[in-house]
Amino acid sequence: MGKKAVVYWSLTGNTEQMANAVFEGAKEAGADVVLLKFSDTSVDDVLGFDAVALGCPAMGNEVLEEGDVEPFFTEMEGKIDGKKIALFGSYDWGDGEWMREWEKRVSAGGATLLSGEGLIVNNEPDEFALGECKKLGQALASA
């Protein structure tokens, strides 16, 4: 099954709740998985995992968080060919443009986007959304 990682950034705690549920889903499915914040790891470490779930909420004008996540992913995206990546995050406005752009960047880098698209949740995840996060964790586990 290989080692998996769930890496996230959260401001309000919504994306953190999602990350915890993705992690739980992967762990329940038997994965050897770790939960990390972007600020607590490096691109090289993340690229060492067999599959990774990346989480970031929509920020500003529907963009990735610009202090930690955008620079991290910019460094990472040229090195992801052949990698298996899941995306998730929360938003409070807009229609998910930040996630669609992130999906395009993952695909353009040659990675496989698990579940075919990123998982987005409006504001705080409810029980249904947390269940979807666990399903994403299960997909991560089997990747």
From TrEMBL:
Xref: InterPro entries: Flav_short, Flavodoxin/NO_synth, Flavodoxin_CS, Flavoprotein-like_sf
Cofactor(s) this protein requires: FMN
Nucleotide-binding among keywords: no
Entry's family note: Belongs to the flavodoxin family.
Source superkingdom: Bacteria
Keywords annotated in UniProt: Electron transport, Flavoprotein, FMN, Transport
Protein name: Flavodoxin
Function summary: Low-potential electron donor to a number of redox enzymes.
Residue ranges of domain Flavodoxin-like in the record: 4-141
